[in-house]
Amino acid sequence: MSALERNNVTLHGALDGPPMMFAHGFGCDQTMWRFVWPAFGDDHRVVLFDHVGYGGSDASAFSESRYSSLEGYASDVLAICDELDLHDVVFVGHSVSAMIGVLAANARPERFARLVLVGPSPRYLDDEGYVGGFSEEDITGLLDSLESNYLGWSSAMAPVIVGNPDRPELGEELTNSFCRADPAIAAVFARATFLADNRRDLAQVPVPSLVLQCSEDVIAPRPVGEYVHDRLPDSRLVVLSATGHCPNLSAPAETVAAIKEFLAE
Length: 265
Description:
Elements: H1 3-6, E1 10-13, E2 19-23, E3 45-48, H2 64-67, H3 70-84, E4 89-94, H4 96-107, E5 112-118, H5 136-148, H6 150-162, H7 168-179, H8 183-194, E6 209-216, H9 222-231, E7 235-243, H10 247-250, H11 252-264
Parallel strand pairs: 2-3, 2-4, 4-5, 5-6, 6-7
Antiparallel strand pairs: 1-3
Helix pairs in contact: 3-4, 5-6, 5-8, 6-7
């Protein structure tokens, strides 16, 4: 199957410009970038896609053996790059897709020019000398709840993830996005996400990176963003005024401004 069909790839903007790929986070799809990507369309060939099991992707392509680790999703990113023959890609990854971008760039550095990591976390689980934001009990409870009552988990967790309680429409949008996914696929992706440990991969990143950290984020708290920044060979850390884990929805103008400043360097 063509990767472009499998991952519902859509192309926008200046189709002869340098490529800029946007990758969504857990439980979402490419529409989560609708307030961000148009700001880059005049100068870039914008590549949007859906991870398998989400949005308009082909769910029949889902394989638990392939997608039980983030490497499977990184392979999809590289397949898209190969089919479109993309070089010098600016990869913008939100949440778990930040680490998917790290894995893809490490595997095939010739395809990438820069990484923009929005709310990244190389490990959600606390460890000795490392603050990930979640205890082992937290992660176990989260996964058990998701697997036993996915719709209930989605309704409870989405507003917490997106933050901004004064803007309930954002939580509702994320809840609806979660609920559109197949619970079985979501459970596999959740385990791949929340049990991953990509800390050692950070030091190998071959391209300049921007770490966008929200000022208050229960999913990827500030110590995590600082950790990522400290261990990337060439990175810039920007702490946004935005709160919550989805600045692409809650603060697109601030997100765009930070990315544009990074690309202008």
